[in-house]
Design a protein that fits this description.
Elements (H helix, E strand, L loop, with lengths): L1 E5 L11 E5 L9 E10 L2 H8 L10 E2 L3 E5 L5 E4 L2 E3 L5 E3 L11 E5 L3 E3 L6 H5 L1 H15 L7 E4 L5 H12 L3 E5 L3 H9 L3 E3 L9 E6 L6 H7 E9 L12 H6 L3 E4 L5 H14 L5 E6 L3 H10 L5 E5 L3
Parallel strand pairs: 11-12, 11-14, 12-13, 14-15, 15-16, 17-18
Antiparallel strand pairs: 1-2, 1-4, 3-5, 3-9, 3-18, 5-6, 6-10, 7-8
């Protein structure tokens, strides 16, 4: 079957070790299922894999990709939940320990197949399992956002942050979002948020801060949280050792919460929300699988707003 996989590691030039070609068919255990992939979505995690982050040489070649939607073994339309528990009792995501989704077929535990609502296309559904699921959990399970509340999204433009803007709006919140890029601020404003420059003073303190940037924005996040506010962290792209003002933390009774991904049940709830409200993932580009290398190049360029999706039927 055709697939995109890492053949080696190259930190300086990750695409030099990307291969698009034939890969072995999945040979899953008895309690696993094979999904015919109809669409997959790329993540920066795929570029990190090509750089050697989270992988060992003895795991190569490794098929890339965490996100996919397709046809299950019984013919139903499904979305692939990407978190898998290893034989050692740890958990991982596809393309770290088990082969990934940028392939014609992928094998996962039967538990990882979540029914796809008919309202969502395969391309739209493929965008959800990593970035959108993380954003949904940050706002709901961890952030406990109530309708009529306020949210600050740091570093809007990234996958999780952009999803948080749309989801926060759909959940009935007032959404503020920061970005250094004026063009991205325009995009974010068009999605329904109040777009501001990093570090800007907000017109109110917020109930929830969606924090994926880290060191560069964390002090601002703490200053923007209201009494009893929640700062939910799922990334640290600018650095992972910020200074924390403990006096502000205990005086305002702030909560700093870490999270990653979500559960299959939360993925189902997320898709039900999209089906009900009509909001959809922001997709920058959909390319046929035959142009998979171009898709990776586009992702690496950083000149995208929204997801890069591969159509496996073309």
């Amino acid at each position: 079957m055709r697939a995109a996989f890492a053949t080696a590691f190259n930190e300086a030039d990750p695409l030099s070790v990307l291969e698009i070609g034939d890969a072995p068919e999945p040979a899953p255990p008895a309690d696993w299922s094979v999904v015919e992939v109809r669409a997959s979505a790329l993540n920066h995690h795929d570029l990190w894999s090509l750089r050697g982050v989270g992988l060992r040489e003895d795991q190569l070649p490794m098929i890339l990709g965490c996100d996919a939607a397709g046809i299950g073994p019984d013919g139903t339309e499904v979305v692939v939940y990407p978190v898998v528990y290893t034989d050692q009792g740890d958990f991982t995501i596809l393309s770290e320990y088990y082969q990934g989704t940028v392939a014609e077929r992928v094998a996962v535990p039967a538990y990882n197949l979540v029914p796809k609502p008919a309202e969502l296309t395969f391309a739209e559904a493929a965008c959800l399992p990593t970035a959108w699921l993380t954003a949904f959990r940050m706002l709901t399970t961890k952030g406990r956002l109530e309708e009529g509340g306020a949210v600050l999204v740091q570093g809007a433009g990234g996958g999780v942050a952009t999803a948080a803007v749309l989801l926060g709006t759909a959940l009935g919140a007032r959404v503020y979002a920061t970005s250094r890029d004026p063009a991205k601020r325009e995009h974010i404003a068009a999605l329904g948020a109040t777009a501001v420059e990093p570090g800007a003073r907000l017109p109110e303190r917020v109930d929830v801060v969606v924090e994926t940037v880290g060191e560069a924005t964390f002090d601002h996040s703490m200053k923007c949280a209201k009494l009893g506010g929640r700062i939910v962290v799922s990334g640290a792209t600018s650095g992972y050792l910020p200074k924390v003002n403990l006096r502000r933390m205990f005086a305002l009774q702030l909560e700093i919460l870490g999270t990653s991904m979500g559960t299959p049940e939360e993925l189902a709830d997320l898709m039900a929300l999209l089906a009900r409200t009509g909001i959809r993932p922001v997709i920058d580009t959909i390319l046929p699988f035959s142009e998979a290398r171009k898709a990776f190049e586009l992702l690496q360029s950083g000149q995208v707003f929204g997801k890069v999706v591969l159509d496996h039927t073309a």
